[in-house]
Design brief:
Strands 2, 4, 5, 6, 9, 10 and 11 form a seven-stranded mixed sheet that branches. This protein has a four-stranded antiparallel sheet with strand order 1-3-8-7, with no helix packed on it. The protein has no helices and eleven strands. The protein is globular and about 40 Å long. It is an all-beta fold and about 130 residues long. The N and C termini lie far apart (about 40 Å). Helices cover about 0% and strands about 50% of the residues.
């Protein structure tokens, strides 16, 4: 029923930009917190950016000032604008969502999300 589909990944040179998109279906879009996560090879999946139902955003320290997360509720699309990309940003980027139940929520904790996309690859060359 639930489907999250990422797009927009690709290969860019350091300093370049990319905008990732996550199209959601089968979800009450306005009722979910969403986030972007990335994973490089066999490393642990880490939180990159997240946005709560009230619009509050969270960012990993390594991407603050460079990445921007946003939502288009009318189109059910989540975005991640990535600027000033670095080789360290290379990895598979995943879109995730979880319904807000009023309990505790750690925006950048992948274990707090239960809906996931298949990912889109981002490669940044030096």
């Amino acid at each position: 029923q639930v489907k999250l589909e990422e797009s927009g990944g690709g290969s860019v040179q350091a300093g370049g930009s990319l905008r990732l998109s996550c199209a959601a279906s089968g979800i009450y879009f306005s009722g979910v917190c969403m986030g972007w996560f990335r994973q490089d090879s066999d490393k642990e999946r880490e939180g990159v950016a997240a946005i709560a139902t009230d619009g509050t955003t969270s960012y990993a320290g390594s991407v603050k000032g460079r990445f921007t997360i946003s939502k288009d509720n009318a189109k059910n699309i989540l975005y991640l604008q990535m600027n000033s990309l670095k080789p360290e940003d290379t990895g598979m980027y995943y879109c995730a969502a979880v319904y807000w139940h009023g309990g505790s929520w750690q925006p950048l904790n992948p274990h707090d999300y239960n809906y996931w996309g298949q990912g889109t690859q981002v490669t940044v060359s030096s």
